[in-house]
Amino acid sequence: MIALIILVFVDAHDAATPLPGALARAAEEALGPESSVSVRALAGETPPATLVDAGRAAHATAVARISWTDARRAEARLEVVATDGLTRTSTIAFDASDPLAERGRALGLVLAALLAPEKQAHERERAARENPAAPPAASIGSASPPGPPVTPARRLALDAAVAGGFALEGAGSGVGGALGVRWHPGRRIGLRIGVGARFGEIRAAQAVTMTGAAAAGVVAYVIPPAEERRLALGLRADALLLYESLSHLSADDTAPARGVRLLPGAAARVEGQLAISATLALFLAGGAEIAFGRTDVFVHQEKVAELATLRLVVDGGLVARF
Fold it and tell me: In Å, what is the CA distance from 69 to each residue of 4, 7, 50, 74?
């Protein structure tokens, strides 16, 4: 027996797409086998009272309407009017790259969550019919489970890594660490700022090196992080401000000689992530880093080495999402 009848009105432009079918299937799966979701197309502006009258004519438990709040169709407004006259609304944001079927499924799950009171009332009525002698559900403190939770998007992340840089055709290799903060305005894109430092040595100059970097860049995900899968893959590009420092001390020096230089640079990496929980993932990234300028190393007016402008870089560590 169908106990919950839901009538959903969608924009006429969406009627022939996968969105309505995915919405209906997701809502019916979440609400249970005694529910039926019917989708109708709606052209232009229609008064809410007209939609309510259509729901009454169809003997619907609730009427829902889905509209887009912007021309890019990146944000949907879901409005539900139940038989008790109460109106419930929710706004859902999407990325431009999200398939219509995924958008429909998300809208269906949100619709089911908004209809949790009707589902609970129906289950209480069914329990009373099946066992009239049982006390009301409220008197024994029980309650039907709520509708499926809508997981909020985790848009902020922190990363910490062990970092290595390996000079090509020159000196400047080193090992150290890096820290970064990420913000994801969309599912497939992330913005990142970070700092890092690597330490090494140049034996020909009897010098210890420190290469610091301030980075700002973007991460574009080929496979974006998601709750339903463990793997993610992306491409990361950074603009760099490099801080190159050398400290030299030899037997004929009374104090260390130190040289410092600032250089612009850039880096590109391929980054893979493996989720170990809903909020924590291991990541490994590898690529190349270039400094836009050459640094020569002199000891007593004699050139003994040159810092490589191109280095292979590898980072590995943890990403924590919030």
Answer: 28, 21, 21, 8
Q: Which helix (H) or strand (E) holds 142?
A: none
DSSP string, 15-38: TTSSHHHHHHHHHHHHH-TTEEEE
Residue 146 lies in a domain: no
Tell me how far apart the terminal alpha carbons of the chain are, to the nearest angstrom: 43
The verdict on 232 and 198 lying in the same domain is yes
**Side chain identity at residue 63, one-letter code:** V
Supply 37's token pair. Answer: 């979701």
Reference 273, options 320, 218, 230, 322; nearest CA is 230
| Pairing outcome for strands 280-291 and 257-275 | antiparallel
For residues 101 and 200, state if they share a domain. Answer: no
The verdict on 309 and 168 lying in the same domain is yes
pLDDT digits (tens, 9 = 90+) for 267-321: 999 999 999 998 999 999 999 999 999 888 888 788 888 899 999 999 999 999 9
pTM: 0.54
* CA atoms of 170 and 205, how far apart (whole Å): 13
Per DSSP (E only), the strands in the chain are 4-11, 35-42, 62-68, 75-82, 87-93, 156-167, 174-186, 189-202, 207-223, 231-248, 257-275, 280-291, 295-299, 302-307, 310-321
Q: How many CB atoms lie within 10 A of CB 60?
A: 23
Q: How far apart are CA 290 and CA 232, in angstroms?
A: 26
Both 46 and 190 in one domain: the answer is: no
Closest CA relative to residue 193, chosen from 221, 213, 222: 213
Q: Which amino acid is at 124?
A: R
Assess contact for 209 and 201: CB atoms under 8 A. Answer: yes
Concatenate the DSSP letters of all residues of 179-203 into one string: EEEEEEEETTEEEEEEEEEEEEEEG
List the structure tokens of 247.
Answer: 């400290």
pLDDT digits (tens, 9 = 90+) for 117-157: 878 877 787 777 777 765 554 443 444 445 444 445 678 99
Q: End of a domain among 140, 164, 196?
A: 140
Residue 129: inside a domain, yes or no?
A: yes
